[in-house]
Amino acid sequence: TDAVGLSMSMSEMEDPEVKGKKKRGRPGKQASNKKPRKSPMDKAVGVARGRGKANGVAQHNGDGGDPVTLFEVVKLGKSAMQSVVDEWIESYKQDRDLALLDLINFFIQCSGCRNALHQIYSMFFHQQDSGDYPLTMPGPMWKKFRYNFCEFISVLIRQCQYSIIYDEYMMDTVISLLTGLSDSQVRAFRHTSTLAAMKLMTALVNVALNLSIHQDNTQRQYEAERNKIAGKRANEKLELLLQKRKELQENQDEIENMMNSIFKGIFVHRYRDAIAEIRAICIEEIGVWMKMYSDAFLNDSYLKYVGWTLHDRQGEVRLKCLKALQNLYTNRELFPKLELFTNRFKDRIVSMTLDKEYDVAVEAIRLVTLILQGSEDALSNEDCENVYHLVYSAHRPVAVAAGEFLHRKLFSRHDPQAEEALAKRRGRSSPNGNLIRMLVLFFLESELHEHAAYLVDSLWESSQELLKDWECMAELLLEEPVQGEEVLSDRQESALIELMVCTIRQAAEAHPPVGRGTGKRVLTAKERKTQIDDKNKLTEHFIMALPMLLSKYQADSEKVANLLQIPQFFDLDVYSAGRMEKHLDALLKQIRLVVEKHIEMDVLEACSKTYSILCSEEYTIMNRVDIARSQLIDEMTDRFTHSVEELLQEAEEADDDDIYNVLSTLKRLTAFHNAHDLTRWDLFGNCYRLLKAGIEQGSMPEQIAVQALQCSHYSILWQLVKITEGAPSKDDLVALRRVVKSFLAVCQQCLSNVNTPVKEQAFMLLCDLLMIFSHQLVSGGREGLQPLVFNPDSTLQNELLNFVLDHVFIDQDDESQSMEGDEEDEANKIEALHKRRNLLAAFCKLIIYDIVDMPAAADIFKHYMKYYNDYGDIIKETLSKTRQTDKIQCAKTLILSLQQLFNELLQDQGPNLDRTSSHVSGIKELARRFALTFGLDQIKTREAVATLHKDGIEFAFKYQNPRGPEFPPINLAFLEVLSEFSSKLIRQDKKTVHSYLEKFMSESMSERREDVWLPLISYRNSLLTGGDEDHMSVTSGSSSKTGSVRSKKGRPPIHKKRIEEESSVEGSWMLRNDTLQTPGALQTPQLTSTVLRENRPAEHMPDPDSEPGSENDFVHKRGLMEDDAEPIFEDVMMSSRGQLEDMNEEFEDTMVIDLPPSRNRRERAELRPDFFDSAAMIEDESGFSMPMF
User: Fold this and answer.
1) Which of 320, 529, 596, 916 is at a distance of 20 to 30 A from 762, taking alpha carbons?
2) What are phi and psi of 1162, to 5 degrees?
């Protein structure tokens, strides 16, 4: 056991004879030359004395309290670590046993043992975990302690490196102690000792490196002196150098023995520990060794441990692996030594760029970038493509790291001299033309055109100079083609314009696009200055370039729509400050031409928004722009009025030209009316005339009707804005009310239009206007607007509801037929669903804000289950909001929706319902879902649930069976649905509801036991069962049939009802109780010792066929002493001795440092490299395996 192992380690410290037999020393050293060891009794006395000393010297607290220990000195960190170590060394020279015991006490106390050394025996024998210990305690003091702890070990070895570490006593004892502690099942011992051992190893590696350097220097001096001619050669110096070289070699051998003991005794077992933090410590430190002393440690025999651990299930361990490798790949000189490792583990590293832990993915991408920098041939095109697409990741750090990789791969291989020569030949101001072309090609090949902003944001930090080269971008777009040079295609020009606009937005706004980041952060002074400079730069350039670009591409709607976004990022003061009004006039002229040429809504809206930005009152150019805008609106209004007159006069005889003239002008005016107040042009009158004519004649084209509805809506809103901002007269209110009333009537009539787009537009505008002109209009001290409040009558409410039922709750087949049989692709289906969701949400808002009566929601709620995937979130939110408004009315609405479904079922199947049918089960399932929405607090919902039961009982007995009283009422089966809500009644209310039920029951009903009466029997039982056990708990969520969650004896219930979604907390509690184990299980704890046990096969080995990180990896059995431990990721290193021997026959040992087995350590399986063949170590043909923890 671990206790035996510790006893062996302690006996090695205490028994001089054992020490003499097992000492690790140089050949020829005699044990008799060593100082006699004290007996265990003497050491026990020494421990008692040592507790009162720190570093062997008695110390006291500042207030005169008890003496402090070495542990407390390090924890407080008030003294310089070198002085603390120097004091301990001085005490070691005076009494090494006492000082060493003080050091042992230090390690034990750092593991959380307050009573020092004697407590370790009880913890080992009884396997008691110590709970919190210094390395896991929270707070800044304990974080500082960890740093001081590591520094103490490092300084201790550094100060002892010339004498004490070679005395074959101190280091033997410390390494034996740490090896024993690291073999414990107690986490505190294992964690603390592993950290100490790894830091000790790091310090020894540094000593070994210094010794190697000294050996090289001594060898060079010796060779130089020996090569001198005989007369000038100093024989005494040669002998001294020879003696020094021999002494250094002996010291090197001694250090190698120590490192061998730590590596084989601790590292090879702890790097696959059950605790992720322990594994992370090992991997972090081996990375330090390989970087610090690459000649000795940077070889495949050590790299394989890092490679294997790349498959660890814990992100923090994988992260340490990647960071350790980054430190190695940063040094180009080390690449030859990493070649085999790169070939073996490259695929795993590339796959980690898709790691579920974002931090790991970021570091994996950075590591791949370092590999690329070292050798471009190391990565295949497929490897690079796996990283390329990550520039579109929604997680910004991942995207930025992928952007750095993309920059290194695509934008760092150009020839600067050739680029500059080409730029001069073409008259360009920038040599980045080819790079920008390459960026455009990458964007097009990625086929994610809607994510241009993400691509720009990903490259912003690494390729900012390229992305801000707007002069070069504009030159590429404006230059004329030259013979022999490939020109940009139309598709490439569109992509370049889109990318250019995204770079302008990124520079002007200085924050990531929507979907990246947590929101706008406060910019630093430097970032703010950069933003201002970039905004001035792009404004000065595009003030002149934008009119030329618009002129070239004015016929292309897609390009123009993108280019017209640029003015919103201008610093408009530059127009007046730089006297660039002529460029403003040129821009306004081009925008006017665009408006006259296009009728696409995205182009017109872009023009309207540009005019709105340029007309801002804070800028001096406002008047100039306002005049141009007014002239444009005047012309369009005159044209619209004239074309409307012609269309209405010709009526049914109107040709396509007349319709196009009205539609094109109306589209332009509607787009401008959205952002500009055009009420002085009175567009509502002509739009209303068009709508009335369409209703009366029934022949108005649907696009004209849709645009007329939208334009009229904008006109009403602008009139409302004027009234709310000023002091309106009564005539103004009456006039606006008349307009709103007439428009609502037109919209209501349009709901019966044959054209679906017209009906949908009318419905949305009705919902919006009813919301705007509702009772909330007078809130906030606006009582004077009361004449404008409209309350929809029952007829309008019913029409709105029927529209929702006919156009929202439809099957996919019905929808396809309504689309006139057109075959929809996936994008069209998603767009249609989005439109239907908007229609439903608009109507639900009317219900939530009490504009439409709440019972209308019953027709919405009854579709909750059937259309859960499409509208479940909207319906559930509506239900939640209505309950907040009126709990009782909401409960009545819920039961009404169930009654409606039940009535529909009766109409379909008749009075003899099949209660086992899927339709009945569906209603019961819906009722169960409704019951879950009442939550766990039965007190708050008490009255609402009681009202629900009252209405349900009345409905069940509402109609008597026409065949006579001996037959059940027609709706009696509804009680089976109602019983789903019985669990939400508290005890008193169950009795009250039962009494109310009995009022409807005759004496004969209570005695009937036929199947047709089962709903009544079931409902009565649900009201009676569990009533005595209910103590008005506010957390009751289980069914009354189930009883209490746990019986009085603490056992879980034998029979459980289905687990409810909203009761997941209780459900998980019950599951935990189901899995409780008896104390008997403690007699056979899972082994966690790393010493090979005989006749103790592993209780669990992971499935070798499962992927690392898969679900199977998470079901390993945990050690009983480690409730918070995660099991190791994969047992690829838990090999039997037979496997290692078989592998050794195939591969040759390549260790740079030959680490011979230590003679004063317990024997362990010899470590042999296997050249990363981890698959061969997963299964053991001999059937022997080591226990894993």
Assistant:
1) 596
2) -65, 150
